[in-house]
Amino acid sequence: MRVTNTMLVNQAVAAMQSALARIGLSQARMATGRQLQSPADDPAGQAAATRIQSRLDAMAQLKRQAQGAQSMLTADDQAMAQLREILARADELAVSGASDGKSAADRTAIASEVNGLLEETVGAANTLEDSRYLFGGRETLTAPMTVTRDAAGNITAAAWNPRGVDGAVTVEVDEGVMMQTNVGGTAVFGAATDPTFVPTLLISLRDALVSNDATGVRNVIDGLKSAESRLADPSAAVGGRLRQIDQTLANLDTKTTGAQAALSAILDADVGRVATELSQQQLMYQASLSAAAQAIQPSLLEFLK
Fold it and tell me: pLDDT by residue (tens digit) across 270-300?
């Protein structure tokens, strides 16, 4: 077969185009730091990278959920700490008000502070975190505790949402690991029918103080201590969950770091190696240009220009 000038030109142009394509790919890898510029570069590697990226996305979502659970549990803990302080202060006031040395005026003054503690208690029961009620069970958008007031605006009774305030709210914080993020309202404040229901205790204490009834004041003291003791179990449960969340977040960070390293091994270019390849490709391209110039007649080269 006779080799014509046209064949030489076509072969030279094809070789230069192939060399330019390799140079362009290397330049893209240098610019982006990515080994894979398209799925065609390494179909198996691209498939593996897609699987790893999906896992990273799932772990990022789990981390957001775990952090949300941490925020809710921290708010639970703070609300219970507030209630514990309220009960401790109410107990101090009850002991003071039960003293035979207190006058009616003294007890009326103490009753005013107790009334303030009652308002704080209702506020704690209706604590919001991220626009959700902490102690409302699954009824997170409805205030869990409602009150009845007299003409003077004083609370005379309190009641829970009849739809319930003890439903568990759970969220997945790790693969297959569910975490309860709330505490039942009755576990913290007591059931409305329970004699140690915190609002009822404070109403009874306030009214006994206003009536200058020392015996009635004394009768509330044991109930206040029982209400304070009731906080031990939910507080311990929340503390345990917070510790578990801390460990879960640490585990997610570890798994995320491992997956990111695996993804980097597939996608990231070895910049040093790519730079060497680019230099070699540029030299080869220059060599191909020189070879083409010698093989093709100058008149033809002028024509191609």
Answer: 455 655 655 665 666 566 666 666 655 555 5
**Alpha-carbon distance values, 170 to 174, 217, 231 (Å):** 12, 41, 21
What is the rounded CA–CA span in Å between residue 133 and residue 125?
A: 8
Per this entry, what is the length of the chain?
305
- In the numeric block, the tokens 């070789």 are attached to 15
Residue 120 is encoded by which pair of tokens?
């704080």
pTM score, whole prediction: 0.76
109-135 burial code (b ≥16 CB/10 A, e <16)? ebbebbbebbebbbebbbbebeebbbb
- CA dist 305 and 301 (Å) reads 6
Surface-to-core class of residue 174, CB atoms within 10 Å of its CB (0-12 exposed, 13-18 middle, 19+ buried): buried
Give the number of other Cβ atoms within 10 Å of residue 211's Cβ: 14
Q: Where are the beta strands (DSSP E) in 101-239?
A: 128-129, 132-133, 145-149, 155-160, 170-174, 177-180
Q: What angle do CA 72, 238, 198 make, to 5 degrees?
A: 90
Cβ–Cβ < 8 Å for 155, 199: yes
Cβ 36 vs Cβ 42: under 8 Å? yes
Question: What is the SS3 string spanning 53-76?
Answer: HHHHHHHHHHHHHHHHHHHHHHHH
